[in-house]
Amino acid sequence: MTIYFNNVTKTYKDFSLSIPELHIKTGEVVKLFGKNGAGKTTLLRLIVDLVEVENGIVTIDGMETSKTAAWKKSTACFLDDSFLIKYLEVQEYYKLLYNFYSIPSKSASEVNELAGNFLDMYSLKDKRIENLSTGNQVKVGVLGTLLVEPKLLILDEPIANLDPESRIILISLLKRYKANNDCTIILSSHDLNVTNRITGRSIILDNGAIKYDQYDQKNNLEKIQQHFNNSL
Amino acid sequence: MSWLYIKVLFRNKRAVFQPINIVIFFYIGLFQFVVGAENNLLIQEVLGYSLAIISTGLFFTLHSYRLVSINFDALSVWPISYSSINLSVWLISFYISTLIFLSGFLVLVFLNKSLIFDLLSCYLFTIGVSNVAYLALAIQEEKRYDPSLSAFSTKGSRVSHPFINNAVTLCLGLFVFLVKMLSNWFGGYLFWFLMSSAGVVGLLLNPILLKKVDEFVLQRSYLMKEGFRK
């Protein structure tokens, strides 16, 4: 799915996000970097119409997100743990998601096959989400977005609460999902090393503006690190 | 699947307590309202108005936003098919509570027909004004108000304030009573007019305030991050 930002601005009292133009093509993996408060979450929320655009338009596949809902069917996002229904068991939560997205339910073994070492569905399926650790809750939420087979996947700092091993497994999962589906992935992160394991396009936001936008090359990591070093 | 929706409804404490509150407050409110009006007992009338207002506040907060137990952000992004979720969660609770509400209303009208306009204007007032009051509190508390829960929520975690809900509606009840006392000099017309107009203004203000709350919460997070950065 393609995403297009045209002259988008969003202003708060002491902060302004301004995206004159941003075009994310179908099948791209976009990695959003930036300091705290740089505007990453606002940008993601603008895409899924959780924040109202002040000026300009945001479209998904040509559909203005604030005026249509058809894009929701092919979009999955996990921005924070409020996307979980914590008093449900893991399996029940997934069943609800399948129903929302009108796709057939997957069995625990199918989920395990997809999740690999990321999440042990057999041991967690009957547990309530509220009783899981923070890391496992994030895993449940992130895996839920993959299970509904989206064409556009949006994740806000999905690896922030994960252990080092799970971070790497998640990136592998995303790579595999991307390889099997022509899916657009947008994820924000602070971990340059781990996110560099998936190739795509790196965007650095700084103070509400895009300061770096490059397709990954060999020395991608050094370039991004250089950018952050320069701003110190 | 329907069983799962029922679980969604009943495992959520708020979703369970709201209908119970509606039943308790509505019928107690109506009882006090009728007794108070007939015997001219001021305290009972205050209590009656307050409880009637609380009950309608709870009723409309629950139903005007349709879904009671899922976060508002997630609801906005998930491709929820109304045909499925409404049938199992919303419609069940809506029809049951509507039945309770309407039967209570009819009982009251049967007991005292002259109260019908008083009640109708009270209901309109409650729909419009109580939610505005909650939203204004949310702005002051710098917290996001989650209409689907009728609760305040911060990012990720929900902080519910059931007492604030009831305190707000109780204050509204007292206000209604004061206006009612004043309007006795005008044969009741002033009461109907003021209550109904306040309700309409409140309804118009609701969407504007909802946006303001969202803006306020996000802005605050930026201010905090800026502070840390400095």
Automatic annotation (TrEMBL), chain A:
Span of domain ABC transporter: 3-232
SUPFAM superfamilies per the UniProt record, alphabetical: P-loop containing nucleoside triphosphate hydrolases
Alphabetical list of Pfam families matching this protein: ABC_tran (PF00005)
Entry-linked InterPro entries: AAA+_ATPase, ABC_transporter-like_ATP-bd, ABC_Transporter_VariousFunc, P-loop_NTPase
Highest taxon of the lineage: Bacteria
Keywords, sorted A to Z: ATP-binding, Nucleotide-binding, Transport
GO molecular function: ATP binding; ATP hydrolysis activity
Name of the protein described by the UniProt record: ABC transporter domain-containing protein
